[in-house]
């Protein structure tokens, strides 16, 4: 099932696009927005896998919006202007659909999105929006991830060499979908650990190989709802 969110500054365009989507099997419009800022404030908390973005919008265009969305959302651009095509595909989007949108062309775009949602490409690195801009991070270099104490929408990522990078506006659900499931585990509501960083573990606590500022090994408390999945990962 494709669950999509629409962003277009024109209400008539939204209504028309919703009408087309309702005529396509296995496509559900979860929500629609006509304001990019409101969209960005809410999108990471919406259960969807595809975003349909208009490019030409006042204040902030669709290309700028796309750069701020986490990589877990597949993007289909819509626009009446062909000159944006090259820039759109530089963002590695699913498709670029010219207005006026035809149902058959939209179906093609959703078929591409469905393939990517069901069979995501396997990568050993991920490109994220971070406090230092677009950043490619190799997953085997990640030691530990926690919710930022400054802004809970952000996540602090600690690399094996101690480097600290802030992932911008990304929730744990989407984050875990991006990470190799065999290599990472969520231990409580605020922390994810790379299995390679686990030194010792019990049913209640994990001692990691990560050193704190006091040169002690970082200890993580295992949340009740996370115990069973963790034990299963280790065959317990």
Molecular structure report:
The chain has about 240 residues and is an alpha/beta fold. The protein has 2 domains: about 1-120, Rossmann fold (3-Layer(aba) Sandwich), CATH 3.40.50; about 125-235, OB fold (Dihydrolipoamide Acetyltransferase, E2P). The protein has helices at about 10-20, 35-40, 60-65, 85-90, 105-120, 170-180, 225-235; strands spanning about 1-5, 25-35, 50-55, 75-80, 95-100, 125-130, 135-140, 140-145, 155-160, 165, 185-190, 190-195, 200, 205-210, 215-220. The chain has a 5-stranded parallel beta sheet. A 5-stranded antiparallel beta sheet has the order 10-9-8-12-11, with no helix packed on it. The relative contact order is 0.10.
Compile the SSE list and pairings:
Blueprint: E1 2-7, H1 11-22, E2 27-33, H2 36-42, E3 50-54, H3 62-67, E4 74-79, H4 85-90, E5 95-98, H5 103-118, E6 125-130, E7 133-138, E8 142-147, E9 155-159, E10 164-167, H6 172-178, E11 184-188, E12 191-194, E13 198-201, E14 205-211, E15 217-221, H7 227-233
Parallel strand pairs: 1-2, 1-3, 3-4, 4-5
Antiparallel strand pairs: 6-7, 8-9, 8-12, 9-10, 11-12, 13-14, 14-15
Summarize the structure.
With 236 residues, this protein is an alpha/beta fold. The chain contains seven helices and 15 strands.
The largest sheet, given as strand count, sense and whether it forms a barrel, is: 5 strands, parallel
In total, the number of strands is 15
Number of domains: 2
Rg: 20 Å
Q: How far from one another are the termini? A: 34 Å
Compressed to H and E, one letter per element, the order equals EHEHEHEHEHEEEEEHEEEEEH
Task: Record the strand order, biggest sheet.
Answer: 2-1-3-4-5
- What's the number of helices? 7
What portion of residues belong to β-strands? 25-35%
Q: What is the correct CATH architecture of the largest domain?
A: 3-Layer(aba) Sandwich
Mean pLDDT across all residues, rounded?
Answer: 89
**Superfamily (CATH H level) name of the largest domain:** Response regulator
Structural class: alpha/beta
What's the CATH C level of the largest domain? Alpha Beta
* Helicity level: 25-40%
What CATH calls the topology of the largest domain is Rossmann fold
Judging from the principal axes of the Cα atoms, what is the shape?
A: elongated
The low-confidence parts are none
Keywords: DNA-binding, Kinase, Phosphoprotein, Transcription, Transcription regulation, Transferase, Two-component regulatory system
Domain Response regulatory: 3-114
GO molecular function, one term: kinase activity
GO cellular component, one term: protein-DNA complex
